[in-house]
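Hi all, a correction to my earlier message: I attached the wrong file for MITD1 protein. Here's the right sequence:
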Amino acid sequence: AGAETVKRAVQLDVASRFQESLVCYQEGIDLLLQVVKATTDEAKKQRYRQKISEFTFLSDGKYHKQIRIEENATGFGYEKLFHEYLTEIVSEVWVEDPYIRQIHQASRYLLYNFLRFCEMLVKGPCKVKRIHLLTSYDQGGGRSQQMAALEEIKQSLSNYGVTLSIDFSSSIHDREIRFNNGWMIKIGRGLDYFKKPQGHFSIGYCDFDLRPCHETTVDIFHTKHTKKM
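and the right structure:
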């Protein structure tokens, strides 16, 4: 019952019905706390405590949820991570990540990750019209490759009625993604939390849900206003 109540609270949060969601969260956590007290199985107690700790309520009504992605975990493709926050009213997205640059850097496919993220936005159910990217210039000989790849993504997005604006900063450090419905997602490793695939024809190369992940933490917030870069 507690888990179902919390699930209902998440649905209300996504629908921006924050007062109702707060009541559901409080009821759900109270029910889960009662279960913890009545449970003698220490493993179950730990799972319930972890579930409770995922939800933190701030006095001003803001929302915070934390997801821990373990080393080599699978099932954390972009669609799985973002889908419940990409409601139909989302039309504008801000991506702040200093490492959207070389196609291959330290065994990572950073520009391809950004492309996959854009593909998810194009598929919906959101109606994204504008994507704003703030990143840093590639250091060294990879800058021309970086610019060419980003320009190709920009042109491709325009075929789907989506405008991509690109800005660069030499001092950017934070990594976060914001939607104009108020949701903000901070990922410790940015979009680059997937491990390098074993080969171009290995399972997980195309489907990110099957790709092992690096250990990282995802913090999800809801704010009344999404600041613009």
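Sorry for the mix-up. Residues 1-61 form a domain with the Methane Monooxygenase Hydroxylase; Chain G, domain 1 fold (CATH 1.20.58.80).
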